[in-house]
């Protein structure tokens, strides 16, 4: 049985009498299934060519050496606030990048460069990101940090699983705090 089948069954049941119990048990709190896009008609958002995750060296994939990071951007209500998240693949160490004024590509790049600059040289291996427009300046990030940026395939969040799990936990925490 696949996870999708389980979720479909939960969402189907939630339309009946189990709605409150199911809503309380689901981390997102949604009782309706969010439509999944196929990502078929995507075009590149970047002027500079992307290096795809399939082109990553094998030593990054096996998590043997620390210094290879997964990153993403968490946006707040109405996209008015944002936090950049970096998760180290081996140790699962998390760094949060505060983006107080904006989350444009330039602001995200500057925040990431500052965060990566605090790390020792041996922990600056690579960064894996999704294809969000906030990484449009990935080439200048690589120039500033000497860290290559690898991009996940469209609509494939599982390729950055540690980061996606961390983001879910952070969203849940910030929801409770607000």
Task: Give the secondary structure arrangement, pairings included.
Layout: H1 3-13, H2 19-25, E1 51-52, H3 58-61, E2 68-75, E3 82-88, E4 94-99, H4 105-117, E5 126-129, H5 138-145, E6 149-151, H6 161-177
Parallel strand pairs: 1-6, 2-5, 5-6
Antiparallel strand pairs: 2-3, 3-4
Helix pairs in contact: 4-5
Give a quick rundown of the structure:
This protein folds into two domains: 1-36, no CATH class; 51-177, Ribonuclease H-like superfamily/Ribonuclease H (Nucleotidyltransferase, domain 5). 34% of the residues lie in helices and 17% in strands.
Class by alpha and beta content? alpha/beta
- Helix content, binned percent: 25-40%
Distance between the amino and carboxyl termini? 37 Å
What is the N-to-C succession of helices and strands? HHEHEEEHEHEH
Largest sheet: 6 strands, mixed
Oligomer: single chain
**In terms of per-residue confidence, which ranges show pLDDT below 50 for 5 or more consecutive residues?**
none
Specify the CATH homologous superfamily of the largest domain: Ribonuclease H-like superfamily/Ribonuclease H
Spatial sequence of strands, sheet with the most strands: 1-6-5-2-3-4
**Tally of contiguous helical segments:** 6
């Amino acid at each position: 049985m696949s996870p999708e089948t389980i979720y479909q069954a939960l969402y189907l049941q939630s339309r009946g009498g189990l709605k409150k119990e199911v809503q309380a048990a689901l981390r997102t709190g949604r009782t309706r299934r969010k439509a999944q896009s196929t990502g078929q008609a995507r075009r590149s958002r970047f002027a500079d060519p992307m290096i795809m995750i399939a082109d990553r060296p094998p030593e990054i994939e096996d998590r043997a050496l620390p210094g290879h990071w997964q990153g993403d951007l968490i946006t707040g209500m109405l996209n008015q606030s944002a936090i950049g998240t970096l998760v180290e693949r081996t140790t699962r160490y998390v760094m949060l990048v505060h983006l107080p004024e904006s989350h444009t590509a330039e602001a995200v790049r500057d925040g990431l460069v500052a965060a990566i600059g605090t790390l020792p040289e041996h922990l600056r291996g690579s960064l894996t990101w999704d294809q969000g427009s906030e990484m449009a300046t990935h080439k200048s990030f690589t120039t500033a940090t000497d860290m290559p940026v690898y991009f996940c395939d469209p609509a494939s969040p599982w390729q950055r699983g540690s980061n996606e799990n961390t983001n879910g936990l952070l969203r849940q925490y910030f929801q409770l705090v607000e």
